[in-house]
Write a structure and sequence with these properties.
Number of domains of chain B: 2
Distance between the termini of chain A: 25 Å
Helix content of chain B: 10-25%
Bound molecules: flavin-adenine dinucleotide, flavin mononucleotide, FE2/S2 (inorganic) cluster
Number of domains of chain A: 1
Radius of gyration of chain A: 18 Å
Oligomer: heterotetramer
Low-confidence stretches of chain A: none
Order of helices and strands of chain A: EEEEEEHEHEHHEHEEEEEHEHEHH
CATH topology of the largest domain in chain B: Rossmann fold
CATH class of chain A: Alpha Beta
CATH class of the largest domain in chain B: Alpha Beta
CATH topology of chain A: TIM Barrel
Largest interface: A-C, 43 and 43 residues
Largest sheet of chain A: 8 strands, parallel, barrel
Structural class of chain B: alpha/beta
Low-confidence stretches of chain B: 1-15
Shape of chain A: globular
Strand content of chain B: 25-35%
Strand order of the largest sheet of chain A: 3-4-7-8-9-10-15-16
Chain lengths: 304, 275, 304, 275
């Protein structure tokens, strides 16, 4: 047995495996395939103040070892969330984190304030990196001044664990990680999707209604791993690594690169029980390698 | 933890049945016509309840170009043999690989997924219409309708004679009307040109096929006030209601065709009028 | 028959397919597999003023649908090139372009000046995007002011066709394309490799001697395609698209997105005859779709 | 266009033979031991000249985890049958897929690649030593040496008895000495512990195997002043001298092990002393 517990700010997680936002619904959709209480946590769908219908179909294109999506934050808004979804989430025996989105700083602040009041939500993930919406989203994640402003404003009203989700579509991601740290975030998570595009040569048209979309899956793993490694060396707050994790070995690579925890995203579409399999795989690896806790291997490649 | 059955966000019906991920064993893989294959797989532990219109998400291994699972309708279910049949048309590398599955190989499925067709009431007159691999869900639907004491009629459309799929199984359940676009067999034209479709009075019409066919059928049904359900084949990533990629605009907003569908009443679809 | 000819600045190419630098040696290595005279051109190895040994082994790691490399511009330097390699290249019946690298602006300028004198080299590709060298390289490609400085300096001494090869590791690649255009480059080529990393969970060590390396292959195609589309709308000079092209269909996607020409890189490692197969595939596509020239489909997705 | 033969940049020997890309047909795929397979493929158009020590780059299809080709030594060549034999050890998904090739399937190869071993002169006493899949190039080398009128001796090292590969083919060419690390067959220890290796006077020693074995053999040869060539298995992307990923530090700088090698004289390698 190895100790899998990790801490993000004041919050202790049972293990370092968290389901990524936008790829696990509200958790319930995956309950037939795994026991959510065996996970470190789940980050539910990207949520906004007002309800959103998202982008037109088609929203998806398969690419080599990955996929593009252009969902565009379809969700029923915070009121519906609080009234109809939250009560169920409150009964889960795992950390339920909400992924927070907005068009304006005021949106982010108001939504964070509302979530601060929800007892059973111990943390939020500030999504300043969604490539699939015209306003807000990635703008905040690719402009240092805007990033600082929105994080700082949210920090003032949000008193629990604040995670900032960074965009990989930047020249220097460590800059945004440092800003997050300076503005008081408890952790950064990275990466969100890479901005990509697909064209159908037969129809001579883009495959997505929005032309560009977000690339996820194993194709992006080398880039994600590199960024996690860079950020882990640049800041002292914990780094949550994600991007293309398909199995325990991938997750371990992120941890070796410096991630305190990992998120699993696209893999759940292919293996809806991947989350808990990865937990078991990490434990097995630690036992085989004779490490008594996961923290012993966090950032190991930087230590020797 | 609460029982997932109580939690309904997007999924109105699909979420109600327990889903599983399972390695099934290929029992048979038979070429039916040009690029159509009938794949029969058996569940080692016994099949769950499966409703007509539901689908599976098949894992395609050994196909470097295929990253995601592939949605396939349940074509038939044999409870005695514990088998599911899939009717697969080769459309690209994923279905091509499936067409080469050998008996004894494993096929990993996530299933049963999606909602299902609404069964008719006693005494109703129902027509099941489709074409190509759109025929897939109609056999099991016909079987269930037949078991419920209603006789299903079928109207199946094909490009031409060489593309006609075997439909002997359909014939055991009810009358089968055929159309081909070039008239090389059955009625010339589309399913909507088949006299039985045009002229008889139906209480319900179920349709699955290429989008233009479904739109034509839907338009006709709306005009004639016939109850009509179609099964959509939107592009899917997860099939579980978690990616929100498969949406279709409905009168209640964008709904997931994998959990709120794939079966929709045409009155609820936004394309009803443009058809 | 469709007209495959394209123009980059004053230079006419037989067709839009060019072998990418660092993935075709000096051309000769691939002659057993294709007739180089059937290509639009070839861009030979990254060349520097002085000879370089490159980075230590291991320099390569396979990744999902791609590979990382950390070659680090191993080459014998311009003197050796001019004396021993150039005479052979001069006899090729295709455009031979040299990929120009340096640590300092002076390096770039001096090398470009030398190449300006080589009659049989009608163009150079200024590589301001190599992620695998400590000095120079990508620094110039990720900092707008440095990019401007080096392009402007080279433009002064180089009088033939100047192509600037852009780095994808930036927030806004169109900025660098615009700078290239403003400073008088005849074309931009994009993308170079994405900065990535791979770790071996078994040995708990990075797979590359340099820890990070450049990601190429189909994994990066969606990102490359998106950038080509963005740049083609941002500048008037021709765009040469590359990144993950494996076959004619991929090449056509880049052309539909706005690329005047394409380069084929990593695919040559797997199919050393890919270059000319792609030429044939593009022609076949145009004939089937009844376009009389390749220029008819350049940027087509933006036209309707 | 000039003849490519004249153009020598990095490649000193590998560039001299015409390379081809070809679909060969699998004639036989036989399991030899635990994870070792012997794959025989035949060239439809007839084989080109192939020298001992050269290798092929095999395209692995239907293996999503395998993006690049896989380098494999030429284990044997049968000119009458027009076949090449490959000795493949399962190391990961690529070789695993190759181990499942069925007779009749195609195997696409780029070949022949790399330089080759230097053949001995008449009357010299030569030892061919290796272990595991490092045995692969030694059979064809032994055959060529034998054909040139010199009798090859073999010293083959294995982990233990269960890992010993059949070496009957080797025995037809010359005496075979074995070692196992646990002494379960042949001499206990490494190939360098075999009395024949240690005590006899060799003019040339050829070696292919795990790096520690090659370094030990190299160190012994340098000490004893014996001509020694080793065949390296550096990671390769292209196998053609165009990617520069497979370099090995030598007294003349970083050289490509795919074109300047895979065979190197140990005196030229920088690791000669660290062995
Ligand atoms: C609920 C549902 C049920 C289905 N039932 C069946 C069935 O019973 N039998 C059957 O043969 N097929 C069925 N399909 C379609 C099947 O999923 C696709 O043909 C398959 O995914 C194609 O995969 P591929 O790798 O072979 O081809 P790809 O290379 O992925 O695609 C080939 C071409 O088909 C198009 N395509 C792929 N998937 C779809 C789709 N879902 N809708 C429209 N176009 C698509 C692509 O855009 C591309 O042009 C169903 C789809 C859905 C959503
Ligand atoms: C010139 C040359 C000749 C070779 N001849 C043979 C042969 O005749 N028979 C044979 O079985 N193998 C041979 N090899 C090794 C063979 O190429 C690798 O085992 C194979 O590429 C592994 O592919 P994979 O997908 O099965 O495993 P992968 O998943 O790619 O690798 C599995 C493990 O093996 C390691 N590995 C992979 N390739 C190499 C390599 N080239 N050197 C060292 N470690 C490696 C990886 O790092 C990993 O740890 C040769 C290699 C070279 C360069
Ligand atoms: C369909 C889809 C929807 C997503 N929605 C969100 C979202 O709402 N909020 C968010 O922060 N990230 C979202 N993401 C990004 C993922 O959380 C994750 O950052 C990304 O997919 C990379 O990880 P992966 O490769 O493991 O999927 C979405 C990804 C996908 C594929
Ligand atoms: C092994 C290797 C070496 C490369 N060397 C160079 C180089 O010297 N100069 C350069 O501009 N690009 C170099 N590149 C980048 C390629 O030219 C190309 O931009 C990149 O690989 C993306 O294209 P691809 O996916 O088609 O390979 C190299 C790429 C690889 C894989
Ligand atoms: S496919 Fe319907 S939500 Fe994912
Ligand atoms: S593998 Fe040797 S140069 Fe590419």
């Amino acid at each position: 047995m190895a100790d899998l517990r990790i801490k993000i700010g004041p919050l202790e997680f049972r293990n370092p495996v968290i389901l990524a936002s936008g790829t696990c619904g509200y958790g319930a959709e995956l309950e037939d395939f795994m026991d959510l209480s065996e996970l470190g946590g789940i980050i539910v769908k990207g949520t906004t103040l007002e309800p959103r219908e998202g982008n037109p179909y088609p929203r998806m294109a398969e690419t080599p070892s990955g996929m593009l999506n252009a969902v565009g934050l379809q969700n029923k808004g915070i009121d519906y969330f609080e009234k109809n979804i939250y009560p169920h989430l409150a009964e889960y025996d795992t950390h339920v984190i909400v992924n927070v989105n907005g068009n304006t700083i005021e949106d982010y602040v108001e939504l964070s304030r509302r979530l601060d009041e929800l007892k059973a939500i111990p943390a939020i993930e500030l999504n300043i990196s969604c490539p699939n919406v015209k306003k807000g989203g990635m703008i905040f994640g690719t402009n240092p001044a805007s990033a600082r402003e929105v994080i700082s404003a949210v920090r003032k009203v949000y008193h629990k664990t604040l995670i900032v989700k960074l965009s990989p579509n930047v020249t220097d991601i460590t800059e945004f990680a440092r800003i997050s740290e300076e503005e008081g975030a408890e952790a950064v998570s990275l990466v969100n999707t890479l901005l990509g595009m697909a064209i159908d040569a037969r129809t001579m048209r883009p495959k997505l209604s929005t032309i560009t979309g977000g690339l996820s899956g194993p194709a992006i793993k080398p880039v994600a791993l590199r960024m996690v490694w860079q950020v882990a060396r640049a800041v002292r707050i914990p780094v949550i690594g994600l991007g293309g994790i398909m199995n325990a070995e991938d997750a371990i690579e992120f941890i070796l690169a410096g991630a305190t925890a990992v998120q699993v995203g696209t893999v759940s579409f292919i293996d809806p029980g991947a989350g808990t399999s990865i937990v078991k795989g990490i434990e097995k690896y630690l036992v085989e390698k004779e490490f008594d806790s996961v923290s012993r291997i966090t950032g190991l490649i930087n230590r020797n | 933890m609460t029982d997932s059955v109580q939690i309904v966000y997007f999924c109105t019906q699909g979420g109600l049945m327990k889903k599983r991920i399972e390695d099934l064993t290929v029992i048979e893989n038979r070429r039916l016509a040009e690029s159509f294959f009938l794949i029969k797989v058996s569940s080692p532990g016994g099949l769950p309840e499966i409703n007509p219109g539901q689908f599976v998400q098949a894992l395609v291994t050994e196909s470097p170009a295929t990253f995601l699972r592939r949605p396939l309708s349940v074509h038939d279910v044999d409870r005695n043999m514990n088998t599911i049949s899939l009717l697969v048309q080769i459309a690209g590398p994923g279905t091509e690989r499936l067409s080469r599955l050998n008996p004894g190989e494993k096929l990993n499925l996530v299933y049963p997924l999606g909602n299902s067709f609404t069964l008719p009431s006693e005494g109703e007159k129902v027509l099941l219409t489709g074409g190509g691999c759109g025929m897939a869900p109609l056999l099991y639907l016909g079987r269930k309708i037949s078991e419920s004491g209603v006789q299903p009629h079928f109207a199946l459309g094909f490009r031409n004679r060489s593309r006609i799929l075997g439909h002997d199984e359909f014939k055991t359940l009810g009358p089968v009307h055929l159309s081909t676009e070039d008239g090389s067999e059955g009625h010339r034209g589309f399913v909507t040109d088949i006299p039985a479709f045009r002229d008889e009075k139906w209480d319900r019409i179920y349709c699955c096929g290429p989008e233009p066919m479904m739109k034509a059928v839907a338009a006709a049904c709306i005009r004639r006030g016939i109850f009509c359900e179609v099964s959509l084949e939107n592009l899917m990533a997860c099939g579980l209601g978690i990616c929100l990629c498969c949406v279709v605009p409905t009168t209640s907003g964008n709904l997931c065709s994998c959990t709120d569908g794939p079966v929709f009443n045409v009155n609820d679809l936004k394309w009803q009028t443009s058809g």
